[in-house]
């Protein structure tokens, strides 16, 4: 069992909202117009958990293609249209939020407009009012620890008293680098075809503190967070 934290920090995409498959298919479709042909596994390995500017920078490094300035807006327009009919919450997240006995918040690499729209469409934005933090608030996004340290400071909780739930390796690396407990969540639809191999977290060969594929398991391993 793990010690109960004073603050639970949740990633948004793939932890609160089940958006990663939609996001990947949208990105794959747009990149194909520029002659870049990738699949969902490539997206998971190279782009999962990273901010959009980081993703476009990686596209240039990997494929020597400079995407146009309006690429992000075109991507967002397509994505939001898909979200309106396809976006759902991750199974069990509402029950988790109902049962939490400790403060909680969101820390995401997504842009403010995207995270707010996503939470509005799924009906949970009021649950995080005033407690939504994005990579736009710090100089360096995940895998740097900046965002999580910023959250700890704003929420007035010591980093070693925070627990982070993440679905990506870069997010877990950021959490561990910040000195926080890191939980790898594999319950999103984009994780269903993954094998059972442990995730590799750069600089942390021991990996995350805990791996769960459903939120009930979190209460089993960290009972002190439950009402």
From TrEMBL:
Can you name this protein? HAD family hydrolase
A single MF term (Gene Ontology)? hydrolase activity
The keyword Chloroplast is annotated on this UniProt entry = no
In this entry, which stretches build a coiled coil?
Answer: none
Entry keywords, A to Z = Hydrolase
**Key word Lipoprotein present in the record?**
no
Give the InterPro entries listed for this entry. Answer: HAD-SF_hydro_IA
* Superkingdom in the source lineage: Bacteria
The family database entries (NCBIfam families) matched by this protein are listed as: HAD-SF-IA-v3
CDD domains this protein is in?
Answer: HAD_BPGM_like
Native species: Roseobacter insulae
